[in-house]
Amino acid sequence: MRLSVIGCGYLGAVHAAAMASIGHDVVGIDVDESKIASLSRGEAPFFEPGLPELLTEGIASGRLRFTTDMAEAQGAKVHFIGVGTPQQKDGSAADLTYVNAAVDALIPYLSEGDVVAGKSTVPVGTAATLAERVAPTGATLVWNPEFLREGFAVKDTIDPDRMVVGVREDGERVADILREVYHPSVAKGTPFIVTDYATAELVKVAANAFLATKISFINAMAEIAEVTGADVTTLADAIGHDARIGRRFLGAGIGFGGGCLPKDIRAFAARAEELGRGESIAFLREVDAINMRRRDRAVDLVVSALGGSVFKKNVTVLGAAFKPHSDDIRDSPALDVAVRLHGLGAWVTITDPEAIENARERHPQLNYVADRDEALRGADAVIVVTEWDEYRRQMSPEHAASLVSGRVIVDGRNCLDAAAWRAAGWEYYGMGRP
Length: 434
Ligand code: UGA
Hints:
Helix 14 (356-362) links the parallel strand 10 (347-351) and strand 11 (367-368). This protein has a 6-stranded parallel sheet, sandwiched between helices. It has a 6-stranded parallel sheet with strand order 11-10-9-12-13-14. A two-stranded parallel ribbon has the order 7-8. The chain has 2 domains: 2-190, Rossmann fold (3-Layer(aba) Sandwich); 230-434, Rossmann fold, CATH 3.40.50. By secondary structure, it is α/β, with parallel strands linked by helices. The N and C termini lie far apart (57 Å). The chain has helices at 10-21, 33-40, 51-61, 97-106, 126-134, 153-158, 172-181, 183-188, 197-228, 232-240, 261-274, 283-305, 333-343, 356-362, 372-376, 389-392, 397-401, 418-423; strands at 2-6, 25-29, 64-67, 78-81, 115-118, 140-143, 163-167, 192-196, 314-318, 347-351, 367-368, 381-384, 408-411, 427-429. The longest helix has 32 residues, at 197-228. Bound molecules: uridine-5'-diphosphate-glucuronic acid (UGA). Uridine-5'-diphosphate-glucuronic acid (UGA) is lined by residues 121, 146-150, 208, 211, 215, 249-251, 253, 255-258, 260-261, 322-323. Uridine-5'-diphosphate-glucuronic acid is lined by residues 121, 146-150, 208, 211, 215, 249-251, 253, 255-258, 260-261, 322-323.
């Protein structure tokens, strides 16, 4: 099937490449010329495992191309909208500028019978408004939210847990077109849920709100553990054995960040206020507050471990990305902790396997070192803030001890073997662990 994908960021670039890999003829469109140039060369503009291979294959097969020219969307049967919906600069709500601009730019090239499939995360009610704008062209709008995780985006797109398609009352025909698009997953029996616009939009924000709540729940338990001497990691293991609760997303530490969870819970709360139901999800403000407090806690641990001040102390920060397998530093708790320590007068050296370039651009005041051992050399304290394998599995406490000036380690992700680090002579501090 001929498809167009408008917006070639994390969502759109991966979607375009994944759709070509399952046999469709795809054009990816974006206003950013440098992004399009790099994608056209088969190079991913961001770190995403498996994406460069998919781009190269797709381009070589002739089924995948990228352009800045919206006119090339003409003739595609399904047009996916995958542009960003960031947090507004002066508030909590989502900024819909890019979604509106993408739809407006696409409208002149739509034909009778086309399907416009929104994938961006939007406030509930957006699809109904956009449907009115699209209707005069004879095309139909559906809402088809995306649930991919960065770092696993290729797998999540080609083989999702579920597919959700929001349609108008008469939407079965368009739902069938989407079934045809996602034919390998449909054939495999992956749940395919056809519903109304509002439910489809809400499924996405509800899923992210639930995940954020789960993380803040365990971080709240970490706060209680800190004043009682309990160990939140053991607590998470124990409650996680209950299948109704589950262990995933119960990793206590410096909390969640990235381009999705933080802005999505804020936008959801803002939308609920607009709808007169602010109190229904008022707890999301608490989820957000707990999350932000964990960054303070991590900084406090370093300060107190260094005797009450980090001024003119060498602090090595291991990690800058908001999570491993990503070079994304949007709202990264890791980078935030580094910047806060720098603000307190510490000499901060920071390293990350993938995110140094992005981090340096945003925060040039920090000292970036590519090599982990080089970064550790001379440190008075070390803090792990992104649980890359390079730190959690491949860093021996004995070897690290031979490089630093002071054996103080703060485990901001509770990802290290505390006993092994203590046995090697380190003062180990976890988050919500004795
Ligand atoms: C999230 C959702 O997981 C995806 O399903 C969704 O499609 C995506 O947002 C989106 O809306 O586009 P992502 O932002 O890639 O995906 O990252 P997650 O894997 O959810 O991690 C988010 C943050 O939570 C990270 O900073 C991570 O370190 C943190 N986290 C995760 C914890 O602090 N503890 C945990 O136990 C798990």
